Amino acid sequence: MTAAPHSRTGARVDRLPLARFTTLGVGGEAEVWFVSDHAQLAEAMAQPYRILGGGSNLVIADEGVPERVIRLSGPLAERDLMPDPALSDGDQIVTGWVGGGVPLPGLVRALQKLGLGNLEGTVGIPAQVGGAVWMNAGTRYGEMFDGLHTLEIATPDGLRVVAPGELRWGYRDSGIPRGHIVTRVRLKLQRSTPEEVLAKMTLADTARKGQPKMKTPGCAFKNPGGVGAGRLIDEAGLKGARVGNALIAPEHANFIVNLGGATASDVHALLDLIRQRVAVPLELEYELWPGGALGQATSAVTGFSWPVGPE
Ligand SMILES: Cc1cc2nc3c(=O)[nH]c(=O)nc-3n(C[C@H](O)[C@H](O)[C@H](O)COP(=O)(O)OP(=O)(O)OC[C@H]3O[C@@H](n4cnc5c(N)ncnc54)[C@H](O)[C@@H]3O)c2cc1C
């Protein structure tokens, strides 16, 4: 077996099927750059690229994507939850750096064990920290920006370290432009007890009862004007509809699941069917890579030179 090649700055570069990096388990090949420091990131970002997090909001084409796909790894996927004494104050804890590539579910579990609150509402979101911050993912019980103190973002002009107040963030939106990469964050947490944090997490988790447990990229469509998209799809008689190995979940009609071996074309066909049968216009919740007739095309970011060196 030959070892995967490395870039000039030492990033591991490998042509891989993207399906393995997504919660739907669908997606063809691309050149994947595993970057573990800022120098590698700058090199990776010098050509057209996409940043892939937990792949929990993506339907990636069976042909893959032509751009390089960046994955944060090594120290950019590690977490330092030690309170920073210079920034913490009483029960308000500010942690060390948490990498954008850190899986959110494990982080939320670790915070619960430490009795640290503010991110309980994000329990059950199968994202990475960077992707969850970029979308300001959350539930009615809380969202990512509830627990952020500082963000480090790789931009076309170099690294920026900003406070949340410097961004125009809002509902499921961080205000961070597409293609800018959330590399690390410091968390702002409230000292509590493991029991209290668990109680809040249980509340948020209970709201997920009834969601399918199979491979899925989450909700397919946004709720139009207060009406549940799932209810509209159900009323159109589409619960349980199947194309190839993709299925509209019998448990909840706003979820498309992969029964095993589904393709992106199967999923697109089901999305088309829903759009044809439901009278109300529906807006897609997840992103289609590399873009498509149904979703908003996601244009790849072109390369740039990075004048600011790593810290
Ligand atoms: C079972 C299930 C339940 C879900 N429940 C919820 C929920 O309750 N609430 C909710 O809000 N969402 C939910 N989602 C959707 C999804 O988890 C969120 O949208 C999440 O924010 C996606 O993060 P990700 O890391 O998986 O990003 P990806 O799916 O990998 O990417 C999504 C977008 O984020 C960008 N991105 C990824 N990483 C970074 C980074 N480091 N810096 C900048 N941009 C980045 C990508 O380029 C892409 O544009 C759910 C999904 C599933 C499968």
UniProtKB/TrEMBL annotation:
Catalysis performed (reactions): UDP-N-acetyl-alpha-D-muramate + NADP(+) = UDP-N-acetyl-3-O-(1-carboxyvinyl)-alpha-D-glucosamine + NADPH + H(+)
Organism superkingdom: Bacteria
Named cofactor requirement(s): FAD
Pathway, per record: Cell wall biogenesis; peptidoglycan biosynthesis
Domain FAD-binding PCMH-type residues, every copy: 25-192
Pfam entry (one): FAD_binding_4
Location within or outside the cell: Cytoplasm
Gene3D superfamilies xrefs: 3.30.465.10, UDP-N-acetylenolpyruvoylglucosamine reductase, C-terminal domain (3.90.78.10), Uridine Diphospho-n-acetylenolpyruvylglucosamine Reductase, domain 2 (3.30.43.10)
Entry annotation: catalytic residues: 172, 219, 285
Keywords recorded for this protein, A-Z: Cell cycle, Cell division, Cell shape, Cell wall biogenesis/degradation, Cytoplasm, FAD, Flavoprotein, NADP, Oxidoreductase, Peptidoglycan synthesis
EC number, as in UniProt: 1.3.1.98
InterPro entries found in the cross-reference section: FAD-bd_PCMH, FAD-bd_PCMH-like_sf, FAD-bd_PCMH_sub1, FAD-bd_PCMH_sub2, MurB, MurB_C, MurB_C_sf, Oxid_FAD_bind_N
Functional description taken from the UniProt entry: Cell wall formation.
Family: Belongs to the MurB family.
UniProt protein name: UDP-N-acetylenolpyruvoylglucosamine reductase
Source species of the chain: Deinococcus aerolatus
Name of the gene: murB
